[in-house]
Each structure stands twice: as C-alpha cells, then as structure tokens.
C-alpha cells in the first residue's frame, strides 16, 4: 500500500481541478494580454477564477488579489516592498515576525537584517502557540510591518491572527499573514477583518497545481513590484499570466471552501484516531493541543527515534511523511518548532509530521499505525541513547 501523509508539503491536484485546466494547455492557449480572439477565449475562465478566489477569502471587490508563482514569492514581495517603501525613506526601521514562520519569511527577514533593519522574532509558548499580547509588546512607533502566519506548517497550530490584526489596526501598523496552511481549514473573512492588510497563499497546498499562488492587498495599501516590464495584474506583477494555473487555483479554492465541513468533521476524526493510537506508544508526545490545531496535522515525537530513521522505515513501507518544512528538508536539521518550544536536544530530532487531506482513508490510517508501531520498536531496539535511559525517563 502507498499512503501519502505529507499534505502540508504539497497536495495532489483534485481531478475536478485538472478537468477545468485541460482546455488551456492546447486549445485555448492565447496570451490574455493580446488583442485577438485566441486571447479573448481565456478571459471568461480567468474572470471566473478570480471570482472564486474573491469569494473564498470574502474579499471586497475594491481590494486586490494579485496572482504570483507561489507564497514564497508573495512573502518575499511583502517584506522587500516594505523595505523599499517605508524603511529606505527613514520613516520606519523595524519589522516583526514570529520565530516559527516559513523559511520564505525568516530568510527574507535575515536578509533585511543584513541591510541594517531591526527584526523582532516573536517566541512561541510551550504549546507551540503565539500569544497576541506578546506581539503587542513588541510593536513600536518605528514598526513598518507585522507578519504572523495563520496556521503553523509544522504543528498545525492556529495562531490568533484576527486578534493580532486588530491590535495592529489600533496601533496603525500594517499586518500581513501567510495563510498557506489555512485555506480550506480555517474560515477566512477579509471583509470583516480590516486589520489584515496583506495575505498570501499557494495553490498547491489546497489541491491546485504547483507554480501558482496569490497575494491579497487591501485597498489603500501599495506594493513596490519585484518584477518590472509589463502591465499585468494592474501593474503589480509583470509576466504572462499562468492561465491553466489560475483557472485551476480558482476551482481548487471553491472546492476547498465547499469541503471545509468534511475536513473539520470526517478528516479530523481520522487525524484524532491516528493521534490516539500513536500516543499509546510509550514515550511519545504531540506538540500543540488538538483543539488549537487545524484538523489535518500532527507533529509527534518518539523518544529515542531519529526523525530521518523513522522516515526511512516509513518510506520503505510506502508511506510519505515529513520531519518538517519541505522547503528545508534537505538540511536534516532539528525541527525548528521543537527547538522554539525548548524541547530537549534528543527530542528536537525526533519529530515526525503527518498531514492528512480530504482524500485520506481509514484503511490508509490503519496501515500507517501498524507500520509506525513496528518502526518505533525496531528503531528503539537499535538506539544506544534510548537503551541507556533511566527507567523513569523511558
């Protein structure tokens, strides 16, 4: 059996999404910016896709959704635009991010630090959560931007974004949220959350194709383009539009919203079942209480079991899982969330992330439970660190 439980890294394209994309590869392939009929044939589908995105996020028509290649591009764009607009002028000199943001935020923040920008990294608590009051404490009159992810990609923790956005609104500081892991799992209502000025998302996280994403910009808030040389997307972003990708992402957004109740119900039950069974294994624990997480994600540690060794056993059994962010997985470093909550060194390397989707089945979860239990027994049996632990710590 093959089981895919790495949906926080990427998702399969929904068959319904593939169907609506197909005509725009070989039949309706005109450049939307051209003036002939080949171009005009793409316009109705693009209009529908944008309407689906606006509806999915409940965005005011006066606001903008700019199509990008992915959330990594969008996240870079937000932070670097703030640098060009507000920091180079000398009006501001400070941004705030959390210490567990996606690498596309953290690496960009580090780059800006090298240019002399002050960056505050908000800590998480022992449950892997951001506290809104902590963010408030870090804001100063020189803060140009606060950027906090909506859902953590490692633990599935749902951060108090709406509360943080309201704090930023009251203090007059623009707020951005990376909502990559939130689409289809958390209700997003941008009309009724005026503190959120920018929001980013990536299609391949909710069953759209790779290579297409989006950036929400509230009316009255500008961006300095990363790319120059064209008038696409209202002048925000140059480059010929990825018509099949946009059409697919629009349909995927519609499906994500339509199936949210299923995610919150049936898939949550599967996730909880997997979690309950794995927690029966001795010396095992999960980061972040399940009521504070999206319904699809578990970050779990097995004391005495190296994460990479567990992945090897899982992969040999046909199961795809992760030790952390796919964008950094080749580094084989300890899990950043485990480090941030202050986990012991031997535990920081043991975290495994299982992330489900609406396509995950009970049969697949039963098989995964069986494989994990066998793997833990085997790996602990050859672990020198676990073998010599005092009985009271095992």
Note down, in words, how this protein is organized.
With 394 residues, the protein is of the alpha/beta class. The chain has 15 helices and 12 strands. It folds into 2 domains: 3-10 and 260-382, Aspartate Aminotransferase, domain 1; 15-258, Type I PLP-dependent aspartate aminotransferase-like (Major domain) (Aspartate Aminotransferase, domain 2). Helix 8 links the parallel strand 5 and strand 6 (175-178). Helix 1 packs antiparallel against helix 9, helix 4 runs parallel beside helix 9 (243-258) and helix 11 (307-316) crosses helix 14. It is globular, with a radius of gyration of 22 Å. The two termini are 32 Å apart. The mean pLDDT is 92.
Fill in the keyword field for this structure.
Aspartate Aminotransferase, domain 1, alpha/beta, 7-stranded mixed sheet, 15 helices, 3-stranded antiparallel sheet, Aspartate Aminotransferase, domain 2, 394 residues, 2 domains, globular
User: What is the topology, as strand order, of the major beta sheet?
Assistant: 2-8-7-6-5-3-4
CATH architectural type of the largest domain: 3-Layer(aba) Sandwich
Radius of gyration: 22 Å
**CATH-level-4 superfamily name of the largest domain:** Type I PLP-dependent aspartate aminotransferase-like (Major domain)
Give a summary of the structure in a few sentences.
Helices cover 40% and strands 14% of the residues. It is of the alpha/beta class and 394 residues long. The protein has a seven-stranded mixed sheet with strand order 2-8-7-6-5-3-4, sandwiched between helices. The chain has a three-stranded antiparallel sheet with strand order 9-10-12.
